[in-house]
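User: I'm curious whether this sequence folds into something compact or stays loose and floppy. Could you predict its structure so I can see for myself?
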Amino acid sequence: MAHNTDAGEHWLQANQAMLTALFDVLHQRLAEVLGRPVGGSPQAEAARCRAAMPAPPATERLAALFGLDPFASDLVLLAAAVELDGRIAAQVAELDGPAGRSLPSIATAFRALPGAHWSAFAPGAPLRRWRLIELDGEARFTARCLRLDERVLHFLLGLPALDARLEALLRPLPAAAPGGGRIGALAERLAVGLAEGPGFAVLSGRDPSALGEAVAAAAVRLGRVPMRLELAELSGLPSEHEALTRLLQREAALSGLLLVVGAEEADDAALRGVPGLLARLAPPCVVLARGGVPTGEVTALRIDCAGLSAPERMEVLRTALGRRAVDAGALAAVAGQFDLPAPALRAAAARATAQAPGRRQRGKLHPALWEAARAEARPLLDDLAERLETKASWDDLVLPPAQMTVLRQIAAQVGHRLRVYDQWGFRDRLSSRGLGITALFVGASGTGKTFAAEVIAGALSLDLYRIDLSAVVSKYIGETEKNLRRIFDAAEAGGAVLLFDEADALFGKRSEVKDSHDRYANIEVGYLLQRMESYGGLAVLTTNMKQNLDQAFMRRIRFVVEFPFPGAEERAAIWQRVFPAALPHEGLDPARLAQMNLPGGAIRNVALNAAFLAAADGQVVRPAHVLAAARSEYAKLEKPLTGSETRGWAEAGRWAEAGP
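Assistant: Here's the prediction. I'll summarize afterward.
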């Protein structure tokens, strides 16, 4: 395809004339073999056509691409001529004698072509290795016929067509946008590495669009056509791999392709096949991935494509918004919080503009832009973790003053980290492992650990995702680390608050290593801590058993908040807040309800269940409904509801009896 584009219509016409002249030369030669010479000087006409060519003809290009000697080139020309020239097809049929086949046999080729040699037909020779010619039939070897591969015939005619067997696998990359900047510099480095280096490259990063743009721009510099194929689709038996990669190599040569292997979503099993794939492919070839990719014995240029910087993201947003003015500080806040690729930033700007289109709504554009960017980041993480609604506020949270102070400090650090890290220079002073804001919430079930995370996320207008570590931890060595990597990579785009529940499933006092599973368990703990410490948002761990965590682990957590079991005063405050203002109720005294020795989570369960009991009864919520709901909650907790907890407020009724 590339040679057609470069040469243009003039080359196509000249190539057709050259091919016709070569057929005339071959026709004259076959006539002499048959004993019926024809006149004319086709060799002179062929020389004249060659001199008029603006670039080498397809026959010469084919010979140069695949290392064909004169006899092999003549074999290709003979196989093409019987397909395109009726005169030559008739001559070949006559030379074949009684068989009368129009396809030339090996015996006919030896009779008709000069410089014939058997090695041209060896399985490893270019003609058969690259499947330029197929040997038809199962007769004796010299009687087998030569059939030109259809794709090669198209190449000789100058027709821009991919091999039909590869059309389902290959798809073109979008055209590269003109310009320089970060993508231009990356493309230049990639192009130089492919042209002057090993010819293979691994381009890794979290922004697939940036990777694609860089490869497309590098292909333009190399004069090649970038075609992408997915690593996951290259499955099958080794013999099938060999045939497919041979076709890919041939097509890359015929069409001037830059093969681009997409491995961004490949699993570990597929990635392990990359070294073998590269060993079978010829350069240039680029592998796109999110992280590291093994290349085995194949030397490859490795380039890490970092995402857009905050100033670059800000410029993308400013350009996308056009004349829609947004305060520079507000724009910087969005750009600093959401580590999104350029297409997602433009989509967020378009959505925000649509939501606040008028001049009078200009003040609403910043919150609309924030929410639009937040929505663009969600799809990456929604499939990996549970997104929790964050409707609670600081006023809904009931904790002792010391704990409230620490929680507000956590929220303040998340909210002001861009100023401290970037504007005030701490990012340059600290390693990336010290930039993450990490917290450990310790307390019994229902004491408010998850609720506190909801309050912090809501105050910051960020999404909250809960990850159940008991589900992430795998019995298979290395799988837990892979699961955690996927979660953190996806979360980086929006800086969401990550809540790792049930940390006891992974953490504990690490004893001496006794076997490989102990060693890998420690590696998994270390990997999670490493990612938490470098994560661009807030990562929270929850546990019920602080005593099981060793001091080496505790030193790597920035904040530790202990959630105590609420006392009577805190329980009364929770009861005061738990019932919505619209709830009809009668006779409920928060101070007396606080006699029940329940944590906040259980109090919310009792309140909600009591409301349903009252709704089913067609009444307002009364103490009897609360008592019935409390009995169910206590039964679930496998503890008795004592008379001292209900004295003074529980009334006998149809729903429950008062305690002793």
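Summary: The domain at 394-563 is CATH 3.40.50.300 (Rossmann fold). The two ends are 91 Å apart (CA to CA).
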